[in-house]
Amino acid sequence: MSLWRPPTRRRPSPGRMSATGPSPSEEPMMRTATFLLSVLLAVPAASAQTANPASGTVRGIVQDELRRPLSNATVWLQIRRANEKDRPRPFHQWTKTGSGGQFQFSGVPTGRFILCAQLPGSDLVDSCQWDSQPPSVVVSGAATVNVPAITLQKGYPLRVRIDDPRGDLSVQELRTQGAGVRLGVWTPTGMFVPLALRYKEPRGEEHEAVVPYRTPLRLLAQGQRFVLADERGNAIDNRQGLRLPLVIQPGKEPKLIRFEVRGVEKP
Fold this sequence. Notes:
The chain contains two helices and 17 strands. By secondary structure, it is mainly beta. Strand 10 (180-186) and strand 11 form a beta hairpin.
């Protein structure tokens, strides 16, 4: 009859951790490996920070066409590629103008930036939204750059009403994902500017965008899961949408443009 023997505990081989933790001989090796890993991870971050130090300053003012300073305007500063091979680190800041229309950005890294300004709630056109070449600035090192005044042009608040007599829009937007009406304006440079929602009530909603004068535009109205009709009652093809040419002339501004929801599109 063989005698029962308690199982022997295997000693972990070098370089392998046992289930109960590292052996005393392995602890120095692990501490060394952990230290080296932390150093390797820290080197790229330190290099990236020192390669593009944030130390420059950008100053300027925002004004209207009559050169009156605009207070409480929102100004954005965003980095851009200097050339096709340039891969700058992301950088974006925004601020509000003071009582004299002045603004300042501090801690700006070396690079090329665009400046955008907007006065919310006004009839002034966003300086970047309609311009294919918005104001730009180049910052180098710890220099202070005083940029030319950013002038906001007067625009026209284009308003579009979506009539919803049966309340289909309000109900289906909650029930069906992606249901709604797409409204926006195509610019001459091919940018699409969506109309913002002004207000919404059970039988319709109104949208608005401040657009520039004397500029060829195309208004897009497109139903998404809805049957949409224009002011004359003509149904709009949802695959293409309605593209209405517009050129806003001073003194000849269009009235409120209306569309109507005629029902829910059949699957």
